[in-house]
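Protein details
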Amino acid sequence: MTTSLRPMSVSGSARLDLLVSLALVGAAVALPFMVDSRYVLGQVVLALFYATIASQWNLLFGFSGIFSLAQMAIFAFGGYATAMICFYFGWNVWAALFPGALAAVVFSLIVGLACLRLTGVYVALLTLAIAQTMYLLIVTDTECFVMVGSICRQLTGGAVGFARFGDLGTREFLKGQWLVGNYAIVATLFAVTMIATYIIVKSPIGLAFKALKDNPGYAVARGVNRFQAQLLVFGISAFFTGLAGGFYAAHFQAIGPGILSMSQLMFIIAIAVVGGVGTFWGPLVGTIVLVAADELMREAGEFRTLGLGLIIALSIVLMPKGLVGRLGDLVRWLRRRSGAAGRSKLRESTATAGE
């Protein structure tokens, strides 16, 4: 009985994911035609960056159990690497994006190697220390590296960062509609990231990640190499996070150390928690809820942060599995109810036939 039900469950889940995906693609295509405000479209682009970062942090922690706090550092590393390649070597942004993502992967593997023999809170503390060290190295970089005209530039851009090193080319081709072009590019990046994440999670590699999260001792006993799996998930997550960092820098035509602030990191983690850690659609749902709530409370001043804090706290207390987890519980409850009702009707019809 168990063997026969499992394929049906997986197939049903895959069909639901496909339907949700198609609905999201339709909404994404229609959005530029429905939204006239450049501000709103710009906020949607920013939300897509948040969702991309959160999905990769969710891959690390939600599916693999690695509580890393270096996600924004990896994102910034990819953005800085892309900007520096363009600024110092004169490369086109599109040519620099892939090397920038690879640089983020190398940085991530170094972080992963440092965390190999650590677990739990110790990984969090070490990755946070690495991120903060990176921030301090950038903001305290005051030594002249190169003269640009009469202006002395630091290697990392210092507290100012980098600006006007290039863009995605949409301003030249689309003129006044360049933001729509950037939206399409970033939406495609998010879609590719989610598809790759889905394939990884459903593959044998994803099962190994989940096994190491749920029962590390048993997973290792069954032949899963914890060190290799940890480095692999660090590298996969870093590639898409670093690539998103490069697109972020190119979209805004600037990148600075402010992106490494603790508030940015906490917002990404809050997105995953509110949406549902360890659920595929959790990061997207969490992004929609928190970005919308943050925008609605934009005029609330100092109460804006308090309001977001209350939303996060209530989500943790009332919905420990997040919004997607709660929705999944509701769907399973409805299925049980419909199944029980069907069995009851079958018994009644059988009894009637017997009479």
In short: Confidence is low (pLDDT under 50) at residues 1-9. The first strand starts at residue 146 and ends at 148. The first helix runs from residue 2 to 34. The two ends are 31 Å apart (CA to CA).
